Amino acid sequence: MARFGWAHISNAKNLGSGPNGAVQFATGSDGEISGSSSFVYNYASNNLVLSGNMDISGTITAHVFDVKQTTKEEITVSGSTNFGNSSDDTHIFTGSVIISGALRQNYYELKNTTYSVASYDSIIGVSSSAYVSITIPAASVAGPGSILIIKDETVGTRSDANRIAITASGGDKIDHQSTYSLSGDNPALTIYSNGVSKWFIY
Prior knowledge:
By secondary structure, this protein is an all-beta fold. Among the domains are: 14-54, no CATH class; 107-201, Jelly Rolls. 2% of the residues lie in helices and 29% in strands. The protein contains one helix and 16 strands. The protein has one helix at residues 139-142, and strands at residues 25-27, 32-34, 39-42, 47-50, 107-110, 114-116, 123-126, 132-135, 147-152, 157-158, 164-167, 173-174, 179-182, 184-185, 188-193, 198-201. The strands form five sheets. The chain has a six-stranded mixed β-sheet. A hairpin with a 4-residue loop joins strand 1 and strand 2 (32-34). It is rod-shaped. The mean pLDDT is 89.
């Protein structure tokens, strides 16, 4: 069989154009193949660059999603959404946050007599009527401005013997004291962290 170093394609218009690395696409009704500097694949860096808008009707899966702000980025979505997949995930927003709707904090019902508060706990509802010992996290771990609410949810008056004893971690202080006790008729404690070594009642 004969071998040739060329090929002829009938009715070929343009087999490709555009800058180096341009992704080729069909243009016009005659199927001409073209390329654009707005849609380029850099094979040296393994990077695909699109300068323009992209509409996707399916799902995007990515290991890292990095939004580079130029003027303003807006996320608009209808229905419920989720950020993160565990209670200890941290999401940082720089600037003010405006919420049009309800704000719900993490709630934990304490049925046992001892508990070490997690850094993501916000409201601790104590349902045990016995003596309860609660250890709060270090202020440096909780971070500045972290707020914690501890509330006695039992019915009746809590005696001093069955008090809720709250202890700071390490050498931290709660209003300059190492411990704080809740007793009486449905007492509660609301404190905030300075992010260093102290919790303050407010």
